[in-house]
Amino acid sequence: MSKLVTEGAKLAIHFALKLRDGSVVDSNFEGEPAEFCLGDGNLLPGFERCLLGMAQGQRETFVVSPEQGFGQANPNNIQVMPRSTFAPDMNLAEGLVVSFADAQKAELPGVIKAFNDTEVTVDFNHPLAGQEILFDVEVVRLEVA
């Protein structure tokens, strides 16, 4: 009987995160597999749940809902800031990712959504928030206790 992925299992996986339109957001199928212990926080719980019960060598594609993945976009995470917050010589562009410091001085990325001479609209939601993710995963190696 083959071993199956359980909580605490040591895994090496190849994976790809894709959007519904088929575009690949991230993939390691061309490189080394990612190694981690199930439950150590390296994967979001919604992605970890997909792995439970898989066997070494098995490859599956799962649909991960926004609630199980990167969450729903929160309108409160979209902020309008004075243009003066940004360096005068900064070349702003829609889609540009800018790093900010939060209240605890941790890095917080934001995406420029719109701007003019007086205001800049920044979206602090995760770029994949509100998206259904196709999680294509293959269990390369599996060690269970």
TrEMBL record:
It comes from the Bacteria. Its EC number is 5.2.1.8. Residues 8-96 form the PPIase FKBP-type domain. It is an enzyme of class 5 (isomerase). PROSITE patterns: FKBP_PPIASE. GO terms for molecular function: peptidyl-prolyl cis-trans isomerase activity. Keywords: Isomerase, Rotamase. SUPFAM superfamilies: FKBP-like (SSF54534). It catalyses: [protein]-peptidylproline (omega=180) = [protein]-peptidylproline (omega=0). Pfam families: FKBP_C (PF00254). InterPro entries: PPIase_dom_sf, PPIase_FKBP_dom, SlpA/SlyD-like_ins_sf. Coiled coil: none annotated. The keyword Isomerase applies. The keyword Phosphoprotein does not apply. Belongs to the FKBP-type PPIase family. This is Peptidyl-prolyl cis-trans isomerase. It comes from Simiduia aestuariiviva. The lineage of its organism: Bacteria, Pseudomonadati, Pseudomonadota, Gammaproteobacteria, Cellvibrionales.
